[in-house]
Amino acid sequence: MERSEPGVIDMAKKASLDRQIRDLYRLPLAEFIRARNTLAAGLKKQRETAAAAAIQALAKPSPSAWAVTQLLATEPARTAALLDAGKEARAAQRQAMAGRGAEAFRAALDRARGLVEALHRRAEEILAAAGRPASAAVSERLAADLQALAFTPDAAATARRGFLDLDLEPPGFEVLAGLQLAAAPRPAVFRGPASPAPRHSPARPPARPAGRPAVGAARAQPAGKVPKAVADGRKRWDEAVRARRLREVAQAKERIENAESEVARTEAEAAFRRAAAKQADRAAAEATRQAKATRDAADAASARAERARAELARAREALAAATERARTGRRSS
Predict the structure, then answer these.
(1) Burial of 127 (0-12, 13-18, 19+ CB in 10 A)
(2) If I label 267, which of 18, 86, 274, 322 is the partner at 20 to 30 A Cα–Cα?
């Protein structure tokens, strides 16, 4: 990769980074942290500081989010069918609430529910095969993620990128209650035979005998009153949401504790490496000093040897001269 300015990722590199992130989240869950750190270190070594920071900031997914990612990777046909059925159900919901096209709406809703159940079972199989059998909480979270994929409008964007880094926000009570009400058969209400209004008062309905309720009055609800079944459903939903929120808080705290432990471990390792580097620097400085002293001693010895060689040459010359004089003196005598 070419070097980028700190904090800047161009579009081509962003596309490549997105693919790397997707592949990272599709790895076995136990390999995520090691692979993430290795990838971030490699990018940092290439001076890709912004990309390295983006990778290092990625959080390890929950088992449920990871299992949905595996579904997106290994079950593309069924996950696409789930998105289509959910989209069709949402599109038909208004017409069904108005009393039109209820059968088609119920069919789309049944398809979506069937796919949610099938994919839910498959996700639990994937977790079991990975050595992480789904607990009740994980199983519930899986169901919420799959319902969110089916019944929330932004699910298509999540599915297109091919992975979940976090669990999805489940559809709200109003969404699910609306789907249930729209899918329920509507019983016919008998309103009696039509009769012409009296001639003397066309704008006023005929008088009703005292004590006799109007047709259909037994079905009427006071204004603003929520039906008991809906109120009970809302209460159970709110309790489930609160329980899920508490679990998410506990999971977030656990992730923070794990991250803090990882920070402490890496900081301790960095401190150790820095101390070792300083020690190595001191050893290198001492070795450099000793090498310089040795070179200086060698230079001094070389100089002394040169002087000794010069002295030897002079001594040899003196010896030769003395020998020559001695030989010449004996001849003259």
Answers:
(1) buried
(2) 18
Give the pLDDT confidence of 55-114 residue by residue, as tens digits.
999 999 999 999 999 999 999 999 999 999 888 888 777 665 555 666 777 888 889 899
pTM here is 0.53
Torsion angle of C-alpha atoms 198, 200, 206, 207, degrees rounded to 10: -140
Confidence at 158, pLDDT banded by 50, 70, 90: confident
The residue among 61, 16, 251 whose CA lies nearest residue 164 is: 61
- pLDDT by residue (tens digit) across 202-251? 444 444 444 444 433 334 444 445 555 555 556 666 666 667 677 777 76
Q: Answer yes or no: are the C-beta atoms of 234 and 173 closer than 8 Å.
A: yes
Structure tokens that stand for 80 in this block: 């696409």
Residue whose structure tokens are 């009055």: 217
Q: How far apart (Å, rounded) are the C-alpha atoms in residues 15 and 23?
A: 12
The encoded tokens of residue 191 equal: 């309103």
Q: Which helix (H) or strand (E) holds 50?
A: helix 49-56
Q: Are 67 and 142 in contact (CB under 8 A)?
A: yes
Q: What type of residue sits at position 203?
A: A
Cα separation, 40 vs 38, in Å, equals 6
The domain locations on the chain are 11-56, 62-185, 238-333
